[in-house]
Description:
alpha/beta; Alpha/beta knot; 5-stranded parallel beta sheet; 22% strand
Amino acid sequence: MKLRIAALSRIKTGPERILVDDYLERGSATGRAIGLGPCVESEIDNRALRSAGEESRALAASLEGGARIILLDERGKALSSRQLATQIGLWRDEGCREAVFCIGGADGHDRSQLPQPDLMLAFGPAVFPHKLVRVMLAEQLYRAISILAGTPYHRD
């Protein structure tokens, strides 16, 4: 099952870009043997988009039919790393071809412009910068894959 981060705006060079790329590469390598991956990222150019509605429509246009849709939202459900791993494993075992983790713009998601999500995910009640959220999500995807693969990366 392909795991994709779909995010508004671009991360150019810098530490965040290095970290996102590193965790996605690790996730792809570790997940190959257990039916997970590749782990990829799609960036949506939002420079010409003027509202959360326009951004959410652009995000929706990037989604493929049949994918599990996960919206990152501060009002979403905070899952432990093991719970996220379990959910990803269930989707994989159901035969899902892709899970897309959607990161909205500065004003969040306009839910009326997006398909019904399979999960709304939060990294707690705090609001984080979008670049940092992308790094945190890439790491959590790698961690979930590592848990499912039985590697010693995650420790309880």
